[in-house]
Amino acid sequence: MTTIKDIAAAAGVSVSTVSNVLNHKPNVGQETKKRVLRLCQEMRYIPNAAGKSLKTGESKTILFNFNDFDRGFYLKIIEGINDYAGDNGYDLMICTTKSCEKYMHNRLTDGCIILDGRMDDKTIRRAASERYPIVVLDRFLPEPYIKSLVVNNYEPMTGLMEGLVKRGYRKFAFIGGLERSDDNKERFRAFIDVLGRHHLPFRRENYFSGDYRERSGYQAAKIFMSGPELPEIFVCANDNMAIGAMRALRKRGYRIPEDVAVTGFDNNEQAEMAGLTTITVPHYERGYLAASSLIENIRGKKNFAPMKLTAAAAWRGTVGRRVKPPGQY
After folding, report:
1. In CATH terms, is domain 4-47 a member of 3.10.290.10?
2. Contact of 128 with 143, CB cutoff 8 Å
3. Predicted TM-score (pTM) above 0.85
4. pLDDT digit string (tens) for 179-225?
5. Residue range 308-324, pLDDT digits in tens
6. Would the pLDDT of 260 be above 80?
7. Which three-class secondary structure string do you get for 146-206?
8. pLDDT of residue 46
9. N or C terminus: which one in the chain shows less Cβ crowding within 10 Å?
10. pLDDT value at position 226?
């Protein structure tokens, strides 16, 4: 890779002269300026953004860290982040592995949005500072310089469950996501709370811990089908697992919802195509608000109060009416 020293040697000038040309300083003659710029083009010199950020104190770049290409809603979140960042003069860097940590400082990026359940809280706390604000989307982390922007999982799941009980469902199974994730904990807590209010039993063996991917939903349904009795409905912690469960059930000849019903959470494109009853999460808005909050804090607003987004149920064909209680329908 061509360096500024290479350009200086080729032009027969000092490194500081090349630097002055690249930074549009007026103390360089026109002929020298033209020669340096021509050599930069011919030798394909790329300015060091990291070095520039050390001088200016900002890189005009924000970082987004996520961990799963299989979950389509990430594209909507990225679209929202990118739209706000671009409109406000910021570039977006996307990182999907633990190597993200080396970019989480203000020598390379100005702030970070994190949606990665594998990144532990200690790492996030260590990176956050007054000069490096962070927005987290997958957890509630009340710490200085960290803003939590989370989906209100409990209330929409409660509404969905109340609707299912009203439609006559009594035998439930829950296909959960990563057990350590706050999203999964809230969704399952709402599930259990509604069953408790209606005095409906739930056996622990009707809980399957998945990983939010389609294959884990497929595997969960296969395990349930090997047992003595299927539940009346699978309540899944996301759409991918619900799609996987539906695929396994239909492969064995079960009709949905006539034989067994299925619900999801997220309302991704696959859910709409499959007619899946699910909960709509405003993912584009989630990304847009995350970028807005981050850039405002980069600019000194210092608003780190947590924020919750509202989600709502979308009733479709994978849920029917199991029983019609007298006087209700």
Report:
1. no
2. yes
3. no
4. 888 899 999 999 999 999 999 999 999 999 999 999 999 999 999 99
5. 998 989 999 999 887 65
6. yes
7. EEEEEECCHHHHHHHHHHHHHCCCCCEEEEECCCCCHHHHHHHHHHHHHHHHCCCCCCHHH
8. 64
9. N
10. 93
Query: What are the tokens at 10?
Result: 């080729």
Residues 6+ apart with CB under 8 A from 240: 70, 71, 72, 212, 213, 214, 217, 264, 266, 268, 270
Give the phi and the psi of residue 175 in degrees, each rounded to 5: -105, 105
d(CA 235, CA 152): 17
At 54 the pLDDT is: 47
- Two domains, one topology: 4-47 and 154-281: no
With tokens 């007298």, the residue in question is: 326
Which one, of 20, 96, 27, 23, lies nearest residue 63 by Cα?
Answer: 96
**Collapsed DSSP state (helix, strand, coil) of residue 95:** strand
* Residue 327 clears pLDDT 50, i.e. is over it: no
Find the mean pLDDT for residues 58-75.
79
Long-range contacts formed by 30-36: CB under 8 A, 24+ apart: 35/11, 36/7, 36/11
Tell me the domain boundaries of the chain.
4-47, 59-151+284-309, 154-281
Task: For the domain made up of 59-151+284-309, give the CATH fold.
Answer: Rossmann fold (3.40.50)
Phi, psi of 70 (to 5 degrees): -75, -15
Residue 68 has pLDDT above 90, yes or no: no
Residues 151-171 as b or e (16 or more Cβ within 10 Å = b): bebbebbbbbbebbbebebeb
Q: Are 80 and 287 in contact (CB under 8 A)?
A: yes
Q: What is the CATH number of domain 154-281?
A: 3.40.50.2300
pLDDT at position 97, please? 67
Which amino acid, residue 195? L
- Residues with Cβ < 8 Å from 169, sequence gap 6 or more? 232, 233, 261, 322
